[in-house]
Amino acid sequence: KPVIYLKDYQAPAYQILTTDLRFELNTEETLVTSHLRIVRAEGADTQAPLQLHGHESVELISLTLDGQPLAAQQWQREGELLSLQALPAEFELICVTRIHPAQNTALEGLYLSDGIYATQCEAEGFRRITFFPDRPDVMSVFTTTLIADQSQYPILLSNGNPIAQGELEGGRHWVTWQDPHPKPAYLFALVAGNLSKFEDHFTTVSGRKVLLQIYAEAKDLDKLAYAMDSLKRAMQWDEEVYGREYDLDIYMIVAVDFFNMGAMENKGLNIFNTACVLAHPRTTTDAAFQRVESVVAHEYFHNWSGNRVTCRDWFQLSLKEGFTVFRDQCFSADMHSETLKRVEEVSMLRTAQFAEDAGPMAHPVRPESFIEISNFYTLTVYEKGAEVVRMLHTLLGPELFRQGTDLYFARHDGQAVTTDDFVQAMADVSGRDLSQFKRWYSQAGTPRLQVRDEYDAAQQIYRLRLKQSCPATPEAAEKLPFHMPVKISLLDDEGALIPGTQQVLELTAAEQVFEFTQIQAQPLPSLLQGFSAPVKLDYPYTDAQLAFLSKHDNDGFNRWEAGQQLAVRLLQRLIADYQAGKPFSLEARLVEVWSSILEDEQIDPAMKSLLLTLPSEAYLSELAEVIDPDAIHQARRFLRQALAQALEAQWLNLWTAMDSEAAYQPTREEIARRSLKNTCLGYLMTLDNAAYLALAESQFNAADNMTEQQAALMAVAHSNFSDSAAALLDEFFHQWQHESLVMNQWLGIQASDPKPGALARVELLRQHPIYDARNPNKLRAVIGTFCQQNPVNFHALDGQGYAFLADRILELDRQNPQIASRLLTPLTRWRKYDAQRQQLMQAQLQRILQEPNLSGDVYEVASKSV
Ligand code: HT7
Ligand code: ZN
Known about the structure:
It comes from Nitrincola tapanii. It is built from 28 helices and 31 strands.
């Protein structure tokens, strides 16, 4: 496949006014008839060909132009392009194609998920259905007729409103749907199957009653209430916070088990991975409940940020994704806690996105080129993209930001636009020059922010010297300075905020000094509050200052951050000790900090749980110059155990205090209580003490909810009590074997067990009857978890983990290239490891590249990584 460049963008020569589709659904072969009304775009060359996209799997049956079969010399099919020549300014094109849903294992286009027809058209799936200008800047009004066997597929859904239906001979029936809003093909969807529905209504701010429907298999009907509740809250939030009202009379969500990502925002007919919509306290953890809420909200918010205003081309993906992630983050913060949410977001950004930005696939938020766009649904486009929008919010303040989004939606409603258009709306309402700010979209890499300070006691002046730089990334060695909002406060020696010093410093030059006058004594700076820019901060805090900030910082996020930095330092010292063959020893300072957190009754339990959680192995790996998976694992394991031992009575007291007989409730307080209880259990279980095994087993047995049951299972399964681990895993299996999503957790817990021999256990899991190698959720639970959440086993020096992953990639590439390419990520990070591992990992990448018929997806990632 060729490389596509942003600089080559050209507006389409033709627009499609209307698209009428007729699907005769049969599993082996489905006939698709498309009837397009087409006009040449204003100003386009009269000789311009019409370019339609069509995947090689689509059989072209016939092409008719204004009622006449198209002459052979008038069309040409080459690769994915079908070009039509010598066209009038306005015409009708009828195209008949044949496709094979049952053979579609890639899960792009029209496929079958456990007997349910579903589509996935973003980014370029529509071309697997019929020939069409499959690009987001071609929008049309879709009318879709579905014809299928009535008993097998009683429910027939597509975008918009149902306008007609009927029965046919031979037990077949049909339904016609019409979507009045012009849309690009990537937002097209259809679903056909035997589904049950959960219904409700939402009355919009202008008084329109919208029918809300969530469809799933009948057995899952009791797991839809939370998604429905989340949807209604999201609809209301978008009206209140962004002034956005829903624009159709019906909003549907369908849950399917086979899905490459989390969910899809098709106009009026969202299709969801069951993992992101089904929720029940017995089967779903609190974390998974929150994921359902945020994904439901995310897809709903796309109705404006993505559907009403869409992307001109796929380089602009962050226009809709970064903005929508920012919107869903703010929604979740409003529903729960701003600080907790921020800690969760930043943890993910700093471990996974920073690693991506430092790796071979690093790219700007608005990439310049790609081979396969599916490879660019990344943490950079989504999460860093959201940080960029957040920085605009910080720079403009909430009121101007809202004026900016109002202007953006009003100015571009019904259009396909660019990230420049988004920033322009912000510039226009604020009168600010945001041209430098746009470098956040065009330059890849994680900037370094170095801060140094000096205090002039005689003049009572305090100065902060800020210096920024950004490492080279594949697309550019030299970087220009970013426009960076750095939120700070100055604290006095009691930890109180020095009045007037909480502010947002705007760093625009490579180096800049900020002066604060009338500062009566040397202050302690709290820097980058709320993580106001996605950068790596370097300020020489002493351990004592970090301990002080972890108690007194006026910013909740920075209080957490100070404790984490202290733990990071200690862990880094332990890692070095392990590498030098020195015995581990525990430093008193962290025990004191952890002890005072454990005892502090002012700290909310959810925050306490976060504060007491050590930095993850993934974060420690990201921070390391050269990743030593064994040293990182052993150091963290030692520290957890040592903290458990040193504070044993406190952990047990707190576990007991957090234990409750009350029935499950999904409230904020109860979620916090369960989280802290599980954190305490995790520490206690590191002690290899039979009394705590009994405690974990009692928690497992008494739990009326998955959050407590799963945490107890994980603690026992990962412990050294092998017999108890096997017995509990077995009990859990027998309890939940008919719940596919719970079985994913069961698989994941085993695949992430750090004890030796994990690869052999993973091989057994792959043979287990509940494993299905065609289902992406199962692949992620076993292969993804082993390769990404079990570093000490995956990176074993015999290289077998690497060979295992390469085998799976080669197998999967023929079946589902998108999933194969995503699972490949751990091998692409070889540069961060020692020479021996580097060589082993590269050998596997080379082996993959030698495969003659590699997909564009895997080829792009593997070739950019070697
Ligand atoms: N906009 C959706 C993207 C998506 C997707 C992309 C590529 C392949 C499969 C996919 N499924 C969904 C999801 C979202 O961000 O809302
Ligand atoms: Zn999205």
